[in-house]
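In practice, a research group might receive sequence data for several interacting partners and want a quick structural hypothesis before committing to experiments. The following worked case mirrors that situation: the sequences arrive first, and a predicted assembly follows.
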Amino acid sequence: MTREALINLFLFLLLPVTAGAAWLLEEPFIITLTTKVAILALAGVGLNIALGLGGLVSLGHAAFFGIGGYAMGILAAHAQSFDPLMEVTFLIEGTKSMPVIWLVAVIAGALAALAIGALSLRTSGVYFIMITLAFGQMLYYFAISWPAYGGEDGLSIYVRNGFPGLNTLDPIQFFSLAFGVLALVLWFAGRLAAAPFGLALSAARQNAERVETVGMSPYRLRLLAFVISGAITALAGALFADLNRFVSPTMLSWQMSGEIMIFVILGGVGRLYGPVAGAALFILLEHILGGLSDFWHVYLGILLLLVVLFARGGMIGSLAGRAVAHD
Amino acid sequence: MSMLLLIEQVLNGLQFGVMLFLMAAGLTLIFGVMGLINLAHGSLYMVGAFAAAAVAGATGSFVLALIASLIAAAAAGALVELVVIRRLYDRDHLDQVLATFALILIFSEGTRWLFGSFPLFLDIPAALSGPVTLPGGIQYPAYRLLIIAVGLLIAFGLFQLIARTRIGIQIRAGESDREMIAALGVDISRLYTIVFALGAALAGLAGALVGAIQSVQVGMGEPVLILAFVVIVIGGIGSIRGALVGALLVGLTDTLGGVLLPGLFATFMEPSAATAVGSSLASMSIYILMAGVLLFRPTGLYGTT
Amino acid sequence: MTDALLQIKGLNKAFGALVATDDVSLTLEPGEIHALIGPNGAGKSTLIKQIAGGLKPDAGEIRFNGQDITALSTVARARAGLGRTFQISSLAMEYTVLQNAVLGALGHRGTVWRFFAPVMKNADLRAAALTALERVGLADQAGKRTADLSHGQRRLLEVAVALTLHPKVFLMDEPMAGLGASGSKRLTGFLDGLRREAPILLVEHDMDAVFALADRISVLVYGKIIATGTAQEIRAHPEVREAYLGDEVPA
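A structural hypothesis for the assembly, expressed as C-alpha cells:
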C-alpha cells in the first residue's frame, strides 16, 4: 500500500469514527459538524474533477452549489405549502423526498454547467477564471432580485426532507446518509480518474496539443468534466441546504466558490481525498481559530498564503510526496 | 419615461462606468505587464475608502481625504507587491488566484479589526453637495458630475502616460516582450512595483470617490472587483482602451437596464410580475452582455489572440 | 505514379509583411519519404502546422486521401489519419512513457468516452502501446516518467505515439534532433521500413538521414519551394547549392 493510500484510508475512516464517537458521547453538535465536513468535501470532490483532473480553474462553482441548494429549497417549499410548482401543461408538485430532490439537483447542476461551460471553455487561462466568476455572480444577483423564493433573505424549510427507511432528523442517521453519498462519489471519482476519460482529460490539462494530435477534442473532454463536476457540486449543495434546512444567495456567493476551492487546495489539488482533508481542516480551523478570535479569517488567509507559497501539494502532497502516475 | 429622467440615468451610468474604469485600468495593466490576476484589487479599493474616511473624519478636509486614499492604497499595493505578489509572477493562475484570495481574507478581517464592523461615512464636501442645472434644465448632483470629470481626466492622463512618458514606454515594452525590457536596461522589479502601486492608487481613489456616495465598509471592494473583471473580459485583457470602452458599456448597461427593463416588461405583463422579471433580468444584464461579446470575440473587444 | 495521398496546392500564409508560406504546392505519394529541407526560418514548421491543422492558411488547399481538409480542425485531421510528431516534444510530461503511448492507442480506438474501467488495465490498449514502444526501442522505459526522459528519448516517444495512431500519413518535424549519432542511425533504419506502412513527410536537419532516406526532397527557402527532386537532382541543383546547401553538401 502506498503512503497516499494509507492517508486516504485514514481520511476515509476519520469521518465515521469521529461521528460514531460523538454519537456514543452524545454530542450531536459534533455529529453535525462532521456531516458538514462530509458535505463540503463532496462539493470539493466535484470541483476537483474540473480543477485537479481537468486543470480548469473555476471560480464560479458556488453557482452549482447554490443551484443544488435552491433545488432543495424550491421543491421542499412547494411541498410544505401544498402549492404545485407548475400546473400549466403538467402538474408538477413539490417534494420532501431526498432522492427526488437529489436527482433534480444533479440534473439542474449539470444543465447549468453545460451552459456555463460551453461558453466559458471557449476561452482559457485568466479569461476562464474571470468568466466563471462572473457567471457565478450572475446567478447570485438573480437569486437576490428574484422575489418568489425569498430573494436576499433566502428560503427556510420547517422539517428536514426524508429518505426512505431513515429518520433524517436524527443527526447520526443524516450523517450516515451524507457520508454514504460522499463514499459513493469518491468511488466514482476514483474510477473516473483511472478510466479512459480521466487519462485523456488529465492529458489535456498537461498538454492540449498532444490530445488533439491523437484525435481527441480537449473542448469536449473539458466540457464533460465541467458538467460532471457541476452536477456533483450541485448534489452537495442540496445536501448542504438540507443540513441547514435553509438556502440563501450566500450559497451562490463568490466567497463560497473561493471556500470550495480552498478545501481542494488545502488538501492537495488533484488528489482524490484532497477535498476530504481540506474540508476537515477548514472546519477544524473554523472552530478552533473561530473560538480564539472573531477575526479568524486573517489566520486562514495567512495559512492559505503559506500553503500556496511554500507547500504546493497541500496536506496530502506534503505527507505523501509527489503524485505517482496511476499505472 | 421622460427624457430628463433618461438623461439623468445616462449620466449615472457614465459615473458608474468611469469608476469601474479606475478599477479595471489597474487590473488590466497589472495583468498586461506582469501576467498576474489580482483578486485583491478590491481590497485596495477598500483601503482607499477607509483611508479617506479616516482622514476626513480627523481633518474635515475632503481634498486631504482623497490624497490619503491615493497614498494609502499605493503604499498598501507596493507593500503587498514586495512581500507577496512578486513571488507569484512565475506561478500559474491557480496559485495567483489562491494567494490573492488569501490577501482578501487578510485585508478584510484586518480592516474589520481596525475599524470595526460598522460602516463609516464619508461626507460629500458642502460645496459639491447640491445639484447643478445642466443645459436643458436637468438637475444633476454636482458631486457625481465631478466624479465623471475626474474619471475622464484620469483616463486621459493614463493614455498620455502610456503613450508619451518613459515609464509608459517601459509598460508597453513589458506587455509585448519581457525580455525586451530587460534588454532596454530597465529594472524590472522596480517597474513591476511601480505599476502595481499605480494600479492600487487608482483603485484607492475610486474607493474614496464612491465611498462618499455609498457607505465605507468591509467587503465593499469585491462586487466592484467582479464588475471590473467583467469590464476587462469585455474590453480585452491588457488593453487600457478596452477597459475604458468596457467600463462605459457595463456602467450604462447596468444603470439603464435597471431603469428600462421593468418598464419594458410592463408593456406586456402585469405590473408586479414585470417589476420582478425586469429587475431580475436587469441584475443579469451585464453578464448577458459579457456572454454576448464572448460568443463573437472570445478575447474581448480589443484583446489580442 | 499513383494518386497522391497528401496534396497541397497553392498554400499561402503571411504574418503581416512576412510571407512564411509562399505559394507552396507539394504531394506525398504512397510508399515514399518526401523530405522537406531548408535553412532555419524558411517556414518548414509553419508549413507543417498548416498541414496538421494548428494554423489556418490564408489561401490554398490541402487534400488528404481525396478529401479537402483545409477547413478541418486538428482533431478531425488526426482522426482522418494524419500522424504528426512535433519539433519540440509535445507530450503529457507528468505521465509515464506507457501512459503517453496508451493515450495514442486510445485516440486511435476512439474509446475515450468510457468512465469506469481502468484504462491502464486494458490489455488491448496496453499491447498496442507496448508494441509501438518496442518498435522505437523504448519498451524498457515504459514505466518512466516522461519528464525524466532525455530529449532524444522524448523524440522517440513522439514517434511511438504517432505509431499507435496507425496513420495513413506521417508528418514528422525533426524526429532526429537530439538523438546522437547511433540513435539517428537506428531511427533512420526504422523510418526506412516505415514508409511501406505509410508515407512520411519529413522535415529534418540531419542531412545524412535526409539523403539516405528521401525518395524526393523539396527545398524551402523564404517560404517558397525552390526545387523538388531526387537526392541526386537536389545535390546537383545550382540554385539549391547557392541558396542553401553550400558547404553542407555531404561528400
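Before designing any experiment, note the following. Strands of chain C lie at 6-15, 18-28, 33-37, 59-64, 67-68, 82-85, 169-173, 200-203, 216-221, 224-229. The radius of gyration of chain C is 18 Å.
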